[in-house]
Write a structure and sequence with these properties.
With 413 residues, the protein is of the alpha+beta class. The chain is built from twelve helices and 16 strands. Helix content is 35%, strand content 23%. The strands form three sheets. Strands 1, 2, 3, 4, 5, 6, 14, 15 and 16 form a nine-stranded mixed sheet that branches. Strands 7, 9, 10, 12 and 13 form a five-stranded antiparallel sheet that branches. It has a two-stranded antiparallel sheet with strand order 8-11. The protein is elongated. Bound molecules: zinc ion. The site of zinc ion has 5 residues, from loops.
């Protein structure tokens, strides 16, 4: 390990002030943040980041997905770079820290390395990935997906927001608003990627531990289930002739809920439920519902997948059922070397840390396919996120940036 960590050069007041300043761009009246991906508001936040980066001597770059990179040149520019960051788009009812913390902590970590005075061997770049949230253009994370070759540019460009605007056109608008930001290609060679993020769950806070060394991201499967029956008169249709889609759907959901009781850390959610025709005196003809299934172990998710498919067949009765899996992201484990470095950095800086699983998805999923990848979590109050009440304590924000600066310095030195 290099002699002196740059962590001592992390300026907590500056880092906190930048969080508050960034939160002003797209600020909601209730203290939250509404900064839609690829919007004019996001361009403003982007310009602010670029201005801060230029003050430190970093060079901005972008690409055809409008991912933003802020580069500290290394002594050997030809070496694969070290990348750290997150995203600056938010949910419509977002908070000040989701995404923003990762980008600002990375900027602060690089500034600390600059202040330390020795140029690292590898280039280090701060990144803000485009559209992590997926709330304006679904699905999310097209920036990191296209960068890592997991999705084509054409496919990402074809997503439309609710007003019919193509994601490709929104990207072009962002690039047009940039001032002197050169375009680069995708798929640059990376030495490592480290993403700091608020936990978005309650575990670190409950444990009283300021740093989470993220071991992996839990797997998910998402489904749409369509149950088809037949509309009939509520007063005249006999039990024998009824094909009641709602009763069948309710039996399915109850049985799936029971099946998901063990192990007790399965996360099962039916968040969407639509009845047709949804009239009080008509036997329901059709029901559409969603299933969102998550667990850290692929075996558990796959086992539930089999159970769900069995249950809908058993419980459909006289109705027809169609189950469509619309997303499948297997569980993943982050690189052991990065996790060890985060643990060593936390020990060296005297900051308590614990291993933790990520219950939410992040751009790190895409990056982990192409380079050693890790995540650093800090607590957020009550585990609340995607909510204006989202809050992280200043000392935790600083602790995350200190550990990140130590880790990326080692990766780049
Ligand atoms: Zn996020």
């Amino acid at each position: 390990m290099p002699a002196k960590s740059p962590a001592g050069f992390v300026d907590g007041e500056r880092l906190w002030a930048r969080h508050m300043a960034l939160a002003e761009i797209g600020a909601r009246d209730d203290g939250g943040v509404d900064r839609a991906a690829l919007s004019e508001v996001e361009s403003e936040a982007r310009a602010q980041l670029i201005a801060w980066a230029r003050e430190i001597g970093l060079k901005p770059f972008t690409d055809r997905m409008a991912n933003l990179f802020l580069r500290l040149e290394g002594r050997d520019p030809a070496l694969p770079m070290v990348l750290a960051g997150s995203h600056i788009d938010s949910q419509p009812t977002g908070g000040k820290f989701d995404g923003a913390f990762g980008v600002l902590a990375a900027l602060e970590a690089v500034q600390a390395i600059v202040a330390r005075g020795e140029q690292p061997r590898r280039g280090i770049e701060v990144v803000a990935w485009t559209n992590e949230e997926g709330s304006r253009f679904a699905p999310g994370m097209p920036g990191s997906e296209v960068f890592t070759g997991r999705r084509t540019l054409e496919d990402a460009y074809a997503s439309r927001d609710q007003s019919g605007i193509l994601q490709g056109d929104a990207v072009r608008d962002v690039l047009a608003r940039d001032v002197d930001v050169p375009l680069r290609g995708f798929g640059l060679e990376l030495a490592a990627y480290v993403e700091p993020h608020i936990e978005q769950g309650p575990l670190l806070e409950a444990a009283g531990v300021p740093i989470g060394i993220v071991s992996g991201i839990q797997g998910t499967r998402r489904y749409r289930v369509r149950v088809k029956g037949q509309a009939a008169h509520a007063g005249t249709a006999s039990r024998a002739e009824r094909r009641d889609a709602l009763m069948a759907a309710v039996r399915m959901i109850a049985a799936i809920d029971r099946a998901a009781l063990a192990p007790d850390d399965i996360k099962l959610t039916v968040g969407l439920f639509q009845v047709t025709p949804n009239a009080p005196s008509v036997v329901p003809a059709e029901v559409l519902f969603s299933i969102d299934l998550r667990h850290p172990e692929n075996d558990v998710v796959d086992d539930m997948d089999r159970k769900i498919r069995g249950i809908v067949e058993v419980e459909r009765g006289p109705c027809d059922v169609e189950i469509k899996q619309i997303a499948h992201a297997p569980s993943l484990t982050f690189a052991g070397e990065i996790r060890s470095m985060i643990a060593a950095a936390a020990a060296a800086e005297g900051i308590p840390a614990m291993e933790i699983y990520s219950a939410a998805g992040h751009d790190s999923r895409q990056l982990h396919y192409v380079c050693p990848t890790g995540m650093i979590f800090i607590p957020c109050r009550g585990g609340i996120s995607h909510n204006p009440a989202e809050w992280a304590e200043p000392q935790h924000v600083v602790a995350g940036a200190r550990i990140l600066s130590n880790v990326i310095w080692q990766l780049a030195a």
